[in-house]
């Protein structure tokens, strides 16, 4: 009589164990979210993250190659020449394709219509609500930048103002060697190479960065201790 009761209990055990299995995919699905960004902010930020970390080699290669060619063109030619050549190249492609499709339709006596009709019918108008949203988002950053500029130039914090002065002094030497386009080219090369290198050698880089940060912090603390008014403000 004891064996039937054990047999009746086994389906409940198996059903409970089978019921626990569907929860696994939900837990593993959260791993697809963008690292350190969360599911709420994983929009354009995730796209940029995947782009600079070469998650899609073809897409990143296209963006990197196109922007690099554009910057190299700006370094060799004027902005007007580069923009004019780009517009001429685009018009050459579209006009050639339009004429080609017109000839094909005339030969085949078909009525396919305009080849770019699907793109011409796309609504690209910017609504007033979207425009105000972009303006409000931009104003947040502009106001933050204005507050930072006022705080630095009116010396609210002497150490921060000195940091800006030292940085600008170093930038005078950088400007004597490089121009703006060269700096943009170097910045792009760093943006598309440093994250990949850091991801590969994260442990070693964090170790040396921690050492440099500790030394910098100790130097700043010594400077703050010797400057008048800084130590008193810190104590308050």
Walk me through what this model shows.
This protein is mostly helical and 236 residues long. It is built from twelve helices and no strands. Helix 4 runs antiparallel to helix 9. It is found in: Endoplasmic reticulum membrane.
Give the helix/strand layout.
Elements (H helix, E strand, L loop, with lengths): L1 H19 L2 H7 L14 H9 L4 H20 L2 H30 L8 H4 L7 H26 L4 H20 L2 H12 L2 H7 L1 H25 L3 H6 L1
Helix pairs in contact: 4-9
Descriptive keywords:
236 residues, mainly alpha, 12 helices, elongated, disordered N terminus, RTN1-4, transmembrane helix
Instruction: Note the main sheet.
Output: none
Radius of gyration from the alpha-carbon trace, in angstroms? 30 Å
Order of helices and strands: HHHHHHHHHHHH
Give unreliable regions as ranges.
1-33, 35-41
Overall average pLDDT: 80
Q: How much strand content do the residues show?
A: under 5%
User: Total number of helical segments?
Assistant: 12
Shape assignment: elongated
Label the structural class: mainly alpha
Approximately how much helix is present in the residues?
A: over 70%
Ends apart, CA distance between termini = 81 Å
Question: Would you count the extended β strands for me?
Answer: 0
